[in-house]
Amino acid sequence: MGDLLGVAVLGAGHMGADHIRRLDQAVSGARVVAVADPETERAEEAVAGIEGVVVHREALAVLDAPGVEAVLIASPGPAHEEALLAAFARGLPVLCEKPMVPDPAGALRVVEAEARLGRRLAQIGFMRRYDAEYRRLKSLLDAGALGRPLMLHCTHRNVSSPPYFTSDRLVDSSVSHEIDAARWLLGQELTAVTVIRPAPSSAAPEGLWDPQFVVFETEQGALVDVEVFVNCGFGYQVRCEAVGETGSARIGEEHGVAVTAAGGSRLEVPQDYLVRFADAYDREVQAWVDATRRGEVTGPSVWDGYAASAVAEAGVRSLHGAGRVTVDLAERPALYAEPGS
Ligand SMILES: NC(=O)c1ccc[n+]([C@@H]2O[C@H](COP(=O)([O-])OP(=O)(O)OC[C@H]3O[C@@H](n4cnc5c(N)ncnc54)[C@H](O)[C@@H]3O)[C@@H](O)[C@H]2O)c1
Ligand SMILES: O[C@H]1[C@H](O)[C@@H](O)[C@H](O)[C@@H](O)[C@H]1O
């Protein structure tokens, strides 16, 4: 390994371009050496001003480009399985955006492939685990400061959804964050899910079931509810209140600048995840680079990615009328820690 970890980035859309900027400007110890995107002009735009970057339309071609020592996958979810397996075949460490692989069967193939290697190579991009407030909430829960956890009440609002968003994506893309956060905060697997759909907002695109209300049950009988509303129009709001037997704690209340002017005050609300979770993404990618340079893999595992996809798939069945759906997880290989670590 040279002085700087050579990273190939797959996908230069919203998230990929932001990670390229982050690796170039915010994170130490790494440099972008190759970028793949079938729309090469996006990749060219994202690397403008960064020297010596190979740009290619083929994801797999850049994995073999000179100087590539690690891979950051930020292509759409359905492209992740092929990219993860190709990285594993080359022994390359990976940071893969969520959802790891949306289809649980494909996600399990990734778990099995890594387990066959006998060592972890991939960290999954559930960045809330690196958010200062989420970490504080987890410390309180782990220390028993709220007593035995009974419930999590979560809110997940986006200003608007991208044009390709379908009703299923509210569960398997947006709520995948709450699935991972709940497993991690509570240290328990989610065992059943019920999705309820109120009358759609008139601001939602035609045919999109937005908002939705999701209820998860955990293996020790706690409940997690999530309001997901991806065309709320007014701000990016992610909140979580944990209620235990002896106390409660709430995060995500205020994430803007308080402006006082013209005889009044108002709180500016972030408009998207790149602002609300900017620090969390920076810490996530820095942790990945640091661990990779030490020859270690830390953070959310491919098992966490698989569990999130399995729970989300049960949620999508519930959304389409199956009522309360139980979650069947495969057996967890010894390589992977319990949820919550
Ligand atoms: N952690 C988060 O909060 C967060 C936020 C946004 C997106 N994401 C995730 O990041 C990923 C990308 O989302 P986005 O919003 O940037 O999407 P996007 O549509 O803006 O960008 C995706 C890019 O990938 C390119 N692409 C398509 N197929 C590819 C392939 N096989 N190899 C390489 N590139 C390919 C597309 O041309 C596009 O430029 C998704 O998995 C998404 O869920 C995570
Ligand atoms: O892909 C994005 C991303 O994961 C965001 O963090 C989430 O708030 C959005 O709902 C989702 O569409």
UniProtKB/TrEMBL annotation:
Domain named Gfo/Idh/MocA-like oxidoreductase N-terminal: residues: 6-121
Alphabetized InterPro entries for the sequence: Gfo-Idh-MocA_inositol_DH, Gfo/Idh/MocA-like_OxRdtase_C, Gfo/Idh/MocA-like_OxRdtase_N, MI/DCI_dehydrogenase, NAD(P)-bd_dom_sf
Residues annotated as domain Gfo/Idh/MocA-like oxidoreductase C-terminal: 138-325
Family affiliation: Belongs to the Gfo/Idh/MocA family.
Native organism: Streptomyces thermoviolaceus subsp. thermoviolaceus
Reported function: Involved in the oxidation of myo-inositol (MI) to 2-keto-myo-inositol (2KMI or 2-inosose).
Name of the molecule in the record: Inositol 2-dehydrogenase
Assembly and oligomerization: Homotetramer.
Enzyme class of the recorded protein, top EC level: oxidoreductase
Name of the gene this protein is made from: iolG
Domain of life: Bacteria
Keywords assigned: NAD, Oxidoreductase
Classification via Pfam families: GFO_IDH_MocA (PF01408), GFO_IDH_MocA_C (PF02894)
Enzyme Commission number(s): 1.1.1.18
Catalysed reactions listed for this entry: myo-inositol + NAD(+) = scyllo-inosose + NADH + H(+)
